[in-house]
Amino acid sequence: MNGPNGRAQTGPTIRDVALQAGVSVATVSRVINDSPHKVHRATRRRVLRAVVRLGYHPNAVAQGLRRGTTRTIALIVPDISNPFFPAVARGAEDVARRHGYALVLGNTDGDAARERAYLDILRKRWVDGVLFASAGGDARALRALHAGGVPAVLIAREATDGEIDTVLVDSFAGMRLATSHLLRLGHRRIAYIGGPRGLPVARERLRGYHQALRDHGIRPDPRLVVAGDFRVEGGRTAVRRLLARRRAFTALAAANDLMAIGAMEALRAAGRRIPDDVAVVGFDDIPFAAFVDPPLTTVAQPTYRLGALAMERLLALMRGEAGDARRLVLKPQLVVRRSCGARMPQRRPGRAAM
Amino acid sequence: MNGPNGRAQTGPTIRDVALQAGVSVATVSRVINDSPHKVHRATRRRVLRAVVRLGYHPNAVAQGLRRGTTRTIALIVPDISNPFFPAVARGAEDVARRHGYALVLGNTDGDAARERAYLDILRKRWVDGVLFASAGGDARALRALHAGGVPAVLIAREATDGEIDTVLVDSFAGMRLATSHLLRLGHRRIAYIGGPRGLPVARERLRGYHQALRDHGIRPDPRLVVAGDFRVEGGRTAVRRLLARRRAFTALAAANDLMAIGAMEALRAAGRRIPDDVAVVGFDDIPFAAFVDPPLTTVAQPTYRLGALAMERLLALMRGEAGDARRLVLKPQLVVRRSCGARMPQRRPGRAAM
DNA sequence: TTGTACGCGTTATCAG
DNA sequence: CTGATAACGCGTACAA
What we know:
Two copies of one chain form a homodimer.
Chain A: H1 14-21, H2 25-32, H3 41-54, H4 60-67, E1 72-77, H5 85-98, E2 102-107, H6 112-123, E3 129-132, H7 139-147, E4 152-155, E5 165-169, H8 171-184, E6 190-194, H9 200-215, E7 225-227, H10 232-244, E8 251-254, H11 257-269, E9 279-284, E10 297-300, H12 303-318, E11 327-330, E12 333-335
Parallel strand pairs in A: 1-2, 1-3, 3-4, 4-5, 5-11, 6-7, 6-8, 8-9, 9-10
Antiparallel strand pairs in A: 10-12
Helix pairs in contact in A: 1-2, 1-3, 2-3, 5-12, 8-9, 10-11
The first copy, chain A, binds a DNA duplex through residues 1-9, 13-15, 23-27, 29-30, 33, 35, 37-40, 43, 58-59, 61-68, 125.
């Protein structure tokens, strides 16, 4: 492409600045990095003037090569258009920017191969660290990551072997809380739409549901439990399967909000009113949980904070301030809205109060 | 940091591979880039073996320096957690990935200074091109961008001077369509919540609203028009201001869905039923427009496509396949849902049919 | 206080 | 077909 002495760069280089200022490149470098090395005030001014005169910007790639760091961090998510993740990305990018880092974004759709592919950009020194929020993949990729000594933090995702830093909300406690709320409202037959099998957070939430039932002396009925995919469509089909089983229930807990929304839609399509016939709870508190019909009772995940905290932890890791506190578990919080009704369920109809 | 002959790289370099395979670095380079240059089959095998043996990955930063390209593209948005943008990002990233490019994400909050700051990463050769969806900033940044000859494409945003490639939906036609729908339903007094002043798309939408009224021989009433900020809160406050004016209206058009949602909330809080007392239309068709209460009638922006098309155009630009078709304007489409009611407005109460 | 020169890891040119 | 080597632009030990 460009010959052995061709110029790849379109703009001025440090040499141009040096020439213009009548100094050496070393001096220019010292000035623009304001290095501890002493530089005469007059010289510095001359350099600075040359810099603005030429509109010089240091070539970040060259700096990266020289310094061995790119000040770039990757955020790997299953799908940024899943409303759970944008706020995570925003939180992460905010603290990254504040520290002079850029964020590169990768979508995996939970595909293990894609996850591995993104991890490779690490090995190619594109990025200095990784925030990993992708849920689907295999543990191998993670293990390789840790083995490579790469700075990484997991978001809302458990490492199977707990060897990697993690920031998440307590899923078990959260779903236990949500289910307990339904129980306290007087519900006894509570259906459950779970997440993808094998996914640790999905297991945790199911465990929380079971625990809450047992707390109230109720034996879980496996015929009220069905697996989902964490998406709206999964909620719809789950409800259809549930209804086909002809097993009565007065409440429903979904392992996340998207499925709860799909479920509410399907329930209504089947003639059930919410919350009068079926009270519903979700998990995550995605941004529009408050605006759906009816407003969704759910467990809050502070997604922005999750992203921000994870990024902070990652930067600390990269600075070598490792520490050993590897798991940061946030306490879940229940947000009660109309999808649960305002009072104990009654046999008589009538819309819930607003 | 690392001395004149220190190793920045933790992993094996091309030299290690060359050594291991007993060939020169040139040969290794030829093999891993499968260059047209002939390489003996046996030698190639030896090299490949060394590569896997050592777990070699080419250092992308060094490649970037040498080749003068990073295979990275920046996507600059006001706020990724604004539900309009995630799908844009997804579309862009999908086609970028397909072409071997990575996407770096920047949030500006519409702040001109931040926009410029992100544009600087271009000048520093961090990225090969920019997708610009940020709406707030000044035209100067854009002009500088174009002057620098940097590959760039605007998304859902007009360049004031039309010198930069753009991909967007026809805002004028869209809002005209939405407003006409209200008019055809029989509404005559239609309030309007606009976008931020000075923003071209906001102006276009307002223009569309006016045009529709005139099409039906109605003189626009400035007291029914109020400015907003494209966010939920802006919709709420706009409605409050509107109501304070004590000017009757039976329908409301909002320049985007977020404001429409805020408006519906505020209207209901003021005792107005939707759509019986006030029919509402929005713009954008954000992902959950179908799930809010009541489901929102709106103008569809195919955000995923917008991102994908913009990225395709950008890559073409970077390959030098410029062409001259600089503006790609998609036709808007109206999505009718319950927030407009199912039939002509009636004086008598009663919930709209589902 | 300033300048010289080397190397970061890679690719491409040129000579063998 | 293969190898030696000069850049890409920058930061820094070392000499001046």
